[in-house]
């Protein structure tokens, strides 16, 4: 399945989700995901929107629930569009933050850890992350479009705009 095979302007995702990456002092907060889509992979805190919830509110809530931190300066940096061969379609809003309150805590959903931004374990993450996470780290806005067959990325396109 190629990116150009999808009518993106009329594409309507089945699910909406968020990702939030806390970056502080040359470190990025990542999680070992324990359950749900991507279980076993490394990612950032995030999850699906609840009815009536904004992406921003969901990003803050999911970060609180998964790792015990409350980001206080989250900004939207990107949009991610995922179409899977099995029919799953997912739209994720990506945020970054540098300030937070709370205490980092392991939960049933995630084992959080700080990682040097120059040593991100992309080989243990979703295959698309290596193409857009560096943009997020630079504060550059982006829109990513990806097709997957289970956890194998088939095609990608990333549109960027100046930070």
What's the gist of this structure?
By secondary structure, the protein is mainly beta. It is built from 2 helices and 11 strands.
Task: Using brief descriptors, characterize the structure shown.
single chain; 163 residues; two-stranded antiparallel ribbon; 2 helices; 11 strands; globular
Indicate the overall shape.
Answer: globular
| Rg | 15 Å
Low-confidence stretches are none
Strand segment count: 11
Biggest sheet, in brief?
9 strands, mixed
Secondary structure: elements and pairs:
Blueprint: E1 15-24, E2 27-33, E3 42-43, E4 46-48, H1 55-67, E5 69-71, E6 75-84, E7 89-97, E8 100-102, E9 110-116, H2 129-138, E10 141-149, E11 152-161
Parallel strand pairs: 1-7, 6-10
Antiparallel strand pairs: 1-2, 1-4, 2-3, 2-9, 5-8, 6-7, 10-11
Mind explaining what this structure looks like?
This protein has 163 residues and is mainly beta. It contains two helices and eleven strands. Strands 1, 2, 3, 4, 6, 7, 9, 10 and 11 form a nine-stranded mixed sheet that branches. It has a two-stranded antiparallel ribbon with strand order 5-8. The longest helix is centred in the middle third of the chain and has 13 residues, at 55-67. The radius of gyration is 15 Å and the shape is globular. It starts with 14 loop residues before the first strand and ends with a strand.
